[in-house]
Specification:
Helices cover 27% and strands 28% of the residues. It is an alpha/beta fold. It starts with a strand and ends with a helix. Zinc ion binds next to loops.
Length: 260
């Protein structure tokens, strides 16, 4: 079975700024689609802000195992309805990979429950990404560290909940550090936040960044799980029925009292 990946991009810088359009002629979503399209087991589609329902209809999400999100200047233009829909899909098992300034996107902020802000500076500084969990699936095939000659600088504190697993820490030549590879479980879904990917730099053409995106899709994909039962559940063992002899109405009343 193919892993169905939807790459979402607000696709605004690419329309407004000729330099960004030159760097990413197919859009950032197109550059990521080129990386993932080379993987035989992936079925890749893209979606952008300007499409009806931002390209994230129920039908599209029904056919998405992993959603990748890039956004920056247009977070507020994403409808609350679509953001909530994405959040609920993640809780239901869809994988979500949030890139760079997507940390302030509506779906990510909803899933984290914090403000998700950090320090930032755009000054062409070097980023050194340290791989701190080499045995994690997202780090497969990577060297001990990766250097991006120029990137936007982000700095701690990054206002997110402590990640379930932290796989990368970045250092910047201006002195800041940043938790740049954060793994979370939310409900039945997995969320990976990955810091690099500012629109003005060729980050998505770097082969190790490409490897990380492929690894992250593999990690975030839904597994073949038995869905948990939520709500009332009959005992598996023989247990005394404490409501024996009561009518349904009496049981309900008793339950209500117990809930108070
Ligand atoms: Zn940026």
């Amino acid at each position: 079975m193919k892993i169905r990946v939807t790459i979402w991009n607000e696709n605004v810088h690419e329309q407004r700024n000729p330099k960004i359009a030159e760097l990413y002629p197919k859009g950032i979503h197109g550059a990521i689609a080129d990386i993932l399209g080379d993987v035989e087991k992936y079925e890749v589609r893209t979606a952008t802000l300007d499409m009806p329902e931002h390209g994230l209809t129920d039908e599209v999400l029904d056919n998405t195992d992993v959603l990748i999100w890039w956004g920056h200047v247009a977070h507020a233009q994403v409808s609350d309805e679509v953001a909530e829909r994405v959040k609920l899909r993640v809780l239901d098992g869809m994988g979500l990979i949030v890139l760079h300034s997507g940390h302030l996107s509506k779906p990510f902020v909803k899933l984290m429950g914090t403000i998700c802000r950090s320090k930032w500076r755009e000054n062409n500084e070097k980023e050194r990404i340290w791989v701190i969990e080499p045995s994690h699936p997202i780090c497969s095939g990577l060297p001990e560290y990766i250097e991006l000659p120029q990137e936007e600088t982000y700095g701690e504190r990054f206002e997110v909940p402590a990640p379930d697993e932290l796989v990368f820490i970045s250092w910047f030549s201006g002195g800041e550090v940043f938790r740049s590879g954060c793994c979370y479980k939310r409900g039945l879904g997995k969320v990976f936040y990955f810091r690099p990917g500012h629109e003005a730099y060729p980050t998505f053409y770097n082969e190790n960044i490409a490897k990380i995106l492929v690894n992250a899709v593999n990690w975030a994909r839904p597994l073949d799980i038995t869905r948990p039962t939520l709500g009332h559940y009959e005992a598996l063992e023989k247990v005394e029925d404490i409501y024996a002899g009561m009518s349904d109405a009496e049981r309900k009343h008793e339950n209500l009292q117990n809930m108070v």
